[in-house]
Amino acid sequence: MAVASSVRLRVILGEDSSQRVILRDGVPHSMSELLEEVQRQCNLPGSFRLQFRDPDFDHEFMNLTSPSDLQDKATVKVVFSPTTHVTLCQDGTPPPPYFGASHSTNFSPALSPSPSSSDTVILSTPPSTSGASSESSLESSSESASSLKSSQWPSVFDVPRFSYDSELKLQHANTAFKEGGTFLSPEPKLKSSILDGLAEEIVKYKLYPTDSDFEEVAKALIKKHPCLKEQGSVTGCSGWKVSLKYKLGNYRTKLRNVGCMEVTVNSLKHKPQGKSSPAYGVKKPRRAEVNYCPSFPSGETAESLERVRVNLLSEGKKKNNDQTLKVLMDKTFALRRHEVIHESPLIADFKTRWPALFRTKEVSECRCQNKYVWHNHKLNFV
After folding, report:
1. How far is CA 54 from the centre of its chain?
2. CA-to-CA distance for 349 and 381, rounded, in angstroms?
3. Would you say residue 272 lies in a domain?
4. Would you say 161 and 155 are in contact if contact means Cβ atoms under 8 Å apart?
5. Would the pLDDT of 262 be above 80?
6. How far is CA 215 from CA 186, 195, 224, 225, 236, in A?
């Protein structure tokens, strides 16, 4: 009886990650056996399917339905189900990314490994890399950074997870550091991925972090990933701190281009004549302040909100109308903030335009959206 020769496969796990799989008994006769073998050798979690380069379609990736389509040194790609719940391995190995697909096939539950950790991640379809989608993503970041912030700067900054390939490189580098004290000098792509991830996490809380904030983030980074500590630096993270400042500056420029109002308020055209310096009079939230300069509600403009304000004046003259006033005050919150920030009106003028704001009920009520700044239970209008 002839002995089946081994077959070597190149298995693509991610954008910059692939692995060799050796089938010593040749290609299995069934898809389930092939999937189990690939899962075992690559230590893959969850349900997935395979794609191969089909020679009948110019070697484009197609779903693999029969193992007989594979030859020695063939290339296959792992495609995870979009709702796969991935359990991290004991050694902290991050799960491979999900490759977008028009549909998914769920295989037998037997293919799912038994949980080894309580840390679970839900894989989802990643955003498109097209220009239009990138612009939409920035607009989403703009809205979140300006009008949807609901948390103050955390007492302990939590370093986010980076892209799959970046996490994999950092994991190996951290292991090398613990074993032999070898520091990692990240290549530009890895460093950019790290800075992008940190910047996106920072703007959830602040668009204008302080020097101490940058210091805190940089220290948190080298604490979680000691391989990134800088030799010759007193703090071990001075370079990361400087790089973060430049990255946040570039990120604010992108947000300004898509209309983030908390950033556009500091553009040069809004500076006083003769003092058009980027560093002059930067308007930014004070300590413990959130929703500093929110965007207008969806579908609203300054003109439409001004009409609501006029209606608010008449509603304020009615009795037993607290609920209506509350709804209108909430709706015009962004307009009031823009007036305060852009025009710096006198209190008397502001009270004339917004008399409902100075009602006892409005002042004493602690807003669940954290719209105002509270110090010792006293409200400060800024």
Report:
1. 36
2. 14
3. no
4. no
5. no
6. 20, 14, 14, 15, 11
Strands 373-375 and 120-122: unpaired
pTM score, whole prediction: 0.45
In a domain, 222, yes or no: yes
Residue 317 belongs to domain spanning: 302-380
Domain final residue, candidates 122, 142, 170: 122
199 residue type, one letter: A
Burial 276-291 (b: 16+ CB within 10 A, else e): eeeeeeeebbeeebbb
Helix (H) or strand (E) run with residue 54 in it: strand 48-54
Buried b (16+ CB within 10 A) or exposed e, 366-375: eeeebbbbee
What's the one-letter identity of residue 341? I
What's phi and psi for 379, nearest 5 deg?
-90, 130
pLDDT digit string, tens, across residues 207-258? 888 899 999 999 999 999 999 999 888 889 999 999 999 998 888 888 877 7
Tokens of 133: 């989608």
Residues 113, 196: one domain? no
**Where among 206, 235, 264 does a domain terminate?**
264
Same domain, 168 and 243: yes
CB atoms inside a 10 Å sphere around CB 344: 9
Q: Is 288 within the bounds of a domain?
A: no
User: 107 and 203 share a domain?
Assistant: no
Rounded CA separation 331/329 (Å) = 5
Q: Which residues of 13-36 are buried (b: 16+ CB within 10 A; e: fewer)?
A: bbeebbbebebeeebbeeeeebbb
Q: With contact defined as beta carbons under 8 Å apart, do 200 and 141 qualify?
A: yes
| Mean per-residue pLDDT, 111-138 | 41
